[in-house]
Design brief:
By secondary structure, this protein is an alpha+beta fold. The chain folds into two domains: 3-171 and 178-190, Chloramphenicol acetyltransferase-like domain (Chloramphenicol Acetyltransferase, 2-Layer Sandwich); 218-446, Chloramphenicol Acetyltransferase, CATH 3.30.559. Helices cover 32% and strands 23% of the residues. The protein has 13 helices and 16 strands. Helix 3 (58-71) packs across helix 4 (138-154), helix 7 crosses helix 9 and helix 7 packs across helix 13. The longest helix has 19 residues, at 240-258. The chain starts with a helix and ends in a 10-residue tail after the last strand. Mean pLDDT is 92; it is low at 452-456.
């Protein structure tokens, strides 16, 4: 990359501005499509939650929220429409902790004036943060949430302590000014105009199911011993991410081949599992904006049913090929390059919104059957960590793929959280049943009544 390109990228990556009307922020490249495709059911809200060892003290949590939000001013914003682009302005209302609900991440409209783009919820022993992808990705949301938890415990006299490897880099000094890099658009920073755009994708099969009633979001959690899953993955010479991506591919193959031949004739021939990739592993950055892309693991179902060992091996090699810096940069070339075109920049926002819907329908979730995101091991400073029983991470609801999942590990367990708008529980059933068939025990929880026995 030339010096001229680097200077231009640095200028384009800036999101924080101030004019005669005050402070405002530009949306990052991944966020720019979110307002156009979000609604009160497909809200774009992902969720991070922590279950504590004692009931939540609401007054303390509200104070911790005020302190934490001041350190993250680029999160404490609301969405506005301009003539050509959406933009973010400081949220002028008062932040409150709101009661948690049995169906999270619902009944939220990012486009409603006066709406902060995240909310903190609490109920009994649980604290949760729901963040719009218009604002940030899982890494950024987790950083805010971890700082909130640390401040919540600090206000009760439980000070964070450094671990064996030193201080947790995600924990900030809440009295310090934010580094501008924390709210940069890192996609624009990494853009390289010499990379070709990716090949066109192929439409993938989707779960064929009616939706559950509006404003409901079914959460099914598989609690899996980390050691058992790791031991199996190591025995097959694959990573945990590859193992779980293969489990979801196996589920969709099972669903496809359980359908009648007549039904299969009307389905796309491909299954595709999206696996998000945190771009910070390739380009270290302090950015708390969106900075993740994805790889697609695909199988041609017309080639016939594969056994799980075959699926796992093929997933392993596809991941090896796709999780590659140069391959990922092709996505940035497509996404950022398009937004820099002069014709795009001068197109009125209402026209952009129209084409955003078309693009998302043809080049977005239509290309994937589901996605599984591996957040990985969660770290917390000693002190607060002793009072947190578990973490969960829930993907944003999707009205196209219907059922998606995310996973993380904490204190010896994997928490695999499925979020679904579908009546069908086939994806969850296939994945959890396959895990048990591999000798990996699973305990199952659900926020809606389960059909059949629950638990071990």
């Amino acid at each position: 990359m030339t010096e001229t390109q680097q200077r231009r990228n640095k200028r384009k990556s800036r999101t924080g501005f101030r004019d005669a009307m005050g402070a405002w922020y530009a949306l990052d490249n991944a966020a720019s499509i979110m307002p156009a495709i979000s609604n009160r059911i497909g809200t774009s809200l992902f969720r991070v939650s922590a279950t504590l060892d004692a009931p939540v003290k609401l007054s303390v949590l509200e104070e911790a929220l005020v302190h934490t939000a001041k350190r993250f001013p680029y999160f404490t914003v609301e969405l506005h429409r301009g003539l050509f682009w959406y933009y973010l302005e400081p949220f002028t209302g008062r932040l409150h902790v709101v009661a948690d609900a049995d169906s999270p991440s619902q009944n939220f409209d990012v486009n409603q004036k006066g709406t902060c783009l995240f909310r903190i919820r609490a109920k009994e022993r649980r604290i949760a943060g729901e963040f719009s992808h218009t604002l940030t990705d899982g890494t950024g949301g987790f950083r805010f949430f971890k700082n909130l938890l640390v401040e919540y415990f600090r206000l009760q006299g439980i000070e964070p302590k450094d671990g064996p490897s030193g201080p947790d880099p995600d924990i900030y000094d809440l009295s310090a000014k934010p580094d501008p890099e924390e709210y940069e658009d890192s996609y624009n920073r990494c853009f390289h105009d010499k990379f070709p755009i990716p090949d066109s994708g192929r439409h993938a099969i989707h779960l064929q199911s009616a939706r559950i009633p509006p404003y409901n979001y079914r959460i099914t959690t598989g609690i899996i011993p980390l050691k058992a899953a790791l031991d199996y993955a190591k025995s097959q010479k694959v990573t945990l991410t590859e193992l779980f991506a293969a489990l979801f591919m196996d589920a969709f193959e099972s669903i496809y081949f359980a359908s009648s031949e007549k039904a299969r004739k009307h389905m796309p021939r491909y299954a595709a599992i999206e696996v998000p990739v945190n771009m910070r592993q390739f380009y270290p950055t302090k950015s708390n904006r969106n900075f993740s892309l994805f790889v697609l693991i695909t199988e041609d179902l017309w080639l016939g049913r594969r056994d799980f060992t075959d699926i796992l091996e093929r997933t392993h090699y596809q991941m090896k090929l796709e999780v590659d810096k140069k391959s990922i940069l092709r996505q940035i070339s497509r996404n950022v390059g398009g937004s820099r075109l002069g014709i795009v920049r001068i197109t009125p926002l209402f026209i952009k919104d129209f084409f955003a819907h078309l693009f998302f329908a043809s080049m977005g979730e239509s290309l994937l059957s589901t996605f599984i995101s591996n957040i990985g091991p969660v770290s917390m400073p000693e002190g607060p960590a002793e009072h947190i029983e578990r973490f969960d991470f829930l993907p944003a609801p999707s009205m196209t793929t219907l059922t998606n999942a995310a996973m993380l590990s904490w204190k010896g367990n994997i928490y695999l959280d499925f979020g679904s708008l579908a009546v069908s529980r086939e994806v969850e059933r296939c994945v959890l049943t396959r895990l048990r068939s591999l000798g990996i025990p699973v305990k199952v929880e659900c926020n809606m009544p389960l059909e059949g026995p629950e638990g071990e």
